Amino acid sequence: MRTATYFFIFLNLSLALFEEPAVYPLPFLATSVLEVLCLLVFLGRLTHFAKVTLHNVFWKDTKNICIMVAILLSLTDLAIYGVLRMYDVRSIRWSRIVRPIFLINFAESRQIRRAFRSIRNTLPEITYVFLLFMFSLLMFSLMALKLFGERNLQTAEGLPYFRNYLEIVFDLYVLVTTANSPDVMMPAFDFSSWYALFFIAFVIINTYIFMSLFLAVVYNNYKKHLKVMPREAC
């Protein structure tokens, strides 16, 4: 039963590769039949679990309620999408976002729930570090706007350089990963080599300090919650 459940969960999640817009497109009828088959298997597994569990225990378990709601939402969305497709009305399969619920909430996925619960418990404790990082990013973006926005600089493509605040925030956010380094600073560097100090300070503070601090907080808190979490509570 466990192997069969995991197989159909994997099949259900893999349908995203074949549904429109798809990497390897298959006819809508084929993907819908496979999805209905997966949902029937999930419903059968849930029914089997209900037969071997006390009635009041089964209905008090939020995992079972989540699975039933996910099945109902998936079937409703599939029916609506199929009807709209018959009338050539373009729509979106919004129920795809509920598919990971099957992976998390079945009884066989105890270890996945432990990891998911540890992540959930870790999030509030890393909020302060994340807010500090965002404050630093926004302040550096504001400084970049004041430093470069009034100098009519242009990129190599002839586009305005650092004149829109939101675009500056995005460019500096990418710079945290060093993905656009040193291209993002070259227009300013060509204007004056002293402006390189601004980007050096930004990388030191945000990439080497904040990102290391963020990773350390995430790792330590996740490990702490994973250790103290009772196995029988999962």
UniProtKB/TrEMBL annotation:
<dbReference type="InterPro" id="IPR005821">
    <property type="entry name" value="Ion_trans_dom"/>
</dbReference>
<keyword id="KW-0732">Signal</keyword>
<feature type="transmembrane region" description="Helical">
    <location>
        <begin position="126"/>
        <end position="145"/>
    </location>
</feature>
<keyword id="KW-0472">Membrane</keyword>
<feature type="transmembrane region" description="Helical">
    <location>
        <begin position="194"/>
        <end position="219"/>
    </location>
</feature>
<dbReference type="GO" id="GO:0016020">
    <property type="term" value="C:membrane"/>
</dbReference>
<feature type="transmembrane region" description="Helical">
    <location>
        <begin position="165"/>
        <end position="182"/>
    </location>
</feature>
<keyword id="KW-1133">Transmembrane helix</keyword>
<feature type="signal peptide">
    <location>
        <begin position="1"/>
        <end position="16"/>
    </location>
</feature>
<protein>
    <submittedName>
        <fullName>TPC2 protein</fullName>
    </submittedName>
</protein>
<feature type="domain" description="Ion transport">
    <location>
        <begin position="6"/>
        <end position="224"/>
    </location>
</feature>
<dbReference type="Pfam" id="PF00520">
    <property type="entry name" value="Ion_trans"/>
</dbReference>
<dbReference type="GO" id="GO:0005216">
    <property type="term" value="F:monoatomic ion channel activity"/>
</dbReference>
<keyword id="KW-0812">Transmembrane</keyword>
<feature type="transmembrane region" description="Helical">
    <location>
        <begin position="65"/>
        <end position="84"/>
    </location>
</feature>
<feature type="transmembrane region" description="Helical">
    <location>
        <begin position="26"/>
        <end position="44"/>
    </location>
</feature>
